[in-house]
Amino acid sequence: MRPALLLMLAAALPGPAFAANQVALDNKVFVERVSTDADGKQRILLEEPKLVVPGDRLVFVLNYRNVGAQAADKFVVTNPLPAAVRFAGAGDTEPLVSVDGGKQWGRLDELSIATADGAHRAAQPADVTHIRWAFQKPIPAGATGKLMFRGIVK
Amino acid sequence: MTSKLNNVGFIGLAAISSLAATPALAAGTTAGTTITNTATVDYQVGGVAQGQQSASNNFTVDRKINLLVEEVGTVTTNVVPGQTNAVTTFQLTNSSNEVLDFALVASQIVGGTAAHGGTDSFNATNVRIYRDNTSSGSIGSWDAGDTLVSGYIDELVVDTAIRLFVVADIPAGLANNAVAGVTLRATAREGGTSGSQGAAITETTGANTAGKDTVFADVAGVTGDAARDGSHSDDDDYTVQTATLTVTKTSRVISDPFNNTTNPKLIPGAVVEYCIAVANSGSADATSVVINDPVPGQLTFNAGTILLNGTVTAGTCNADGTAGGSYSAPNVSGTIATIAAGATRTLVFRATVN
Predict the structure, then answer these.
(1) CA-CA distance, A51 to B112, in Å (whole number)?
(2) Does the pLDDT at position B101 exceed 70?
(3) What are the chain A neighbours of B42 within 8 Å (beta carbons)?
């Protein structure tokens, strides 16, 4: 249904469209605190990153919106990991990751690291240097979405 | 916003539990570091690549004050009465994410249970703190080349452990198994100025600030040292191990001029064997034990009969040992080199009834 609609849109507007700020991005970070209530139930609170010490868990949230009038295609979000943050998963958003500074990309379990003695070992979350989400489908005009990943302050 | 974010936050409770299982980080990122995260988007519209979009956020890593004082080893330091420079060993680790000074105080517990289960019963004297000199001398154990600490450790770098010695003198005249407990407490102080002790550190109270806040993350130490107070402590103790000697003197008739050695009687001319047994019921060896015994005037010492370092079996003198000792009228004397803890050794000699 949706691909058909997009095809139609593309047909209606064949000319090149180059508009600044076609996509709006909002990048936020939160500190994740787990508290246990009287019933022993765990609650997760996301706080502003005002008090952050090594070992704290972070949640990076990227909100995007196609503010243009047309669909955005080949939509690729790339996030180099800050040097002081260790990657700790991306929930169900399943990004591609790189463990070599952005040269090669893949699922974490497909990547390996060359060790000093010439052998290879499986890549670990701590090896991740970049995260990338490459969308298979265009983002329709006006559509919004949210991406997230977790990290730990080294 | 909150509800949306909570949805995000709940994406992976499983992920959280796996995070909790990861090993604890050491000191980590230096306090005051700004962490900036930037995401970029590349996309096309109508098949034409558009200008790259990016968005950033940043935050500052706060200061986590954490330190550890640990006794090295898990046994008491055995001392003898009157010993000088008795050493207990500790380790101080700066697990904070900033270089800090550490004020040090070595104190003695008074009464109560000491580190290794004994009851504190005396105080050591002349208590000092030394820092191990790791470039010369005996590294890891105290020697005269170690540095006497004058109240604080200067500029201890992150993730670094140093060895400290609490050195004290032991008073004379203490009983076996007497115990003196000592406590070493370190308190984090501001670093940054080499050669002088930094100011006291206070935890940031009230609202968080966007700048570098201070959080105490230390665990509780010995009694009276709470968690999250910017200081940590541990205790150790000295236990007196001394020799406790008791002397027993026995005698038996060896022979008389008429019965010879068969049921001899104590008549003039009879030979009497004396056994002086020294028992050590303490916990330490007694060395250079000098035995001195005047021979009664009614007896004449038999030259060459002194036996030293003999044994006792079930309370009976074995009258064994090696020849030695000396006689200087009226005294028989001899020196036993070592009487081990729990052992009994003897001096044996013979004399004739006048």
Answers:
(1) 41
(2) yes
(3) 74-76, 78
